[in-house]
Amino acid sequence: xxxxxxxxxxxxxxxxxxxxxxxxxxxxxxxxxxxxxxxxxxxxxxxxxxxxxxxxxxxxxxxxxxxxxxxxxxxxxxxxxxxxxxxxxxxxxxxxxxxxxxxxxxxxxxxx
Length: 112
Prior knowledge:
Layout lengths: L2 H14 L17 E3 L3 E4 L4 E5 L11 E2 L6 E6 L5 H9 L6 H7 L1 H5 L2
Antiparallel strand pairs: 1-2, 2-3, 3-5, 4-5
């Protein structure tokens, strides 16, 4: 198991136990700085992802992180730094931008 995997597991356990950790500097392990809670992953850049155990019909262009792990996270907010790439990626799925994807697809993906 890599150092990055050990760090992720430690923070997942803390979040599952209700520990609202602060921004954690994992840059030495090649990971971004984030704030992990029971429901959200908030990245230092401003992106926010919502955590889910199961997703419905995920497609390769859906903005999901931790794919194929027991718990995945779907983007809820995309920061200014990453929106251009996000819009490009979602364009592969036929969406003009993140706002359209969020309005038309996100609810289906997360089962709401």
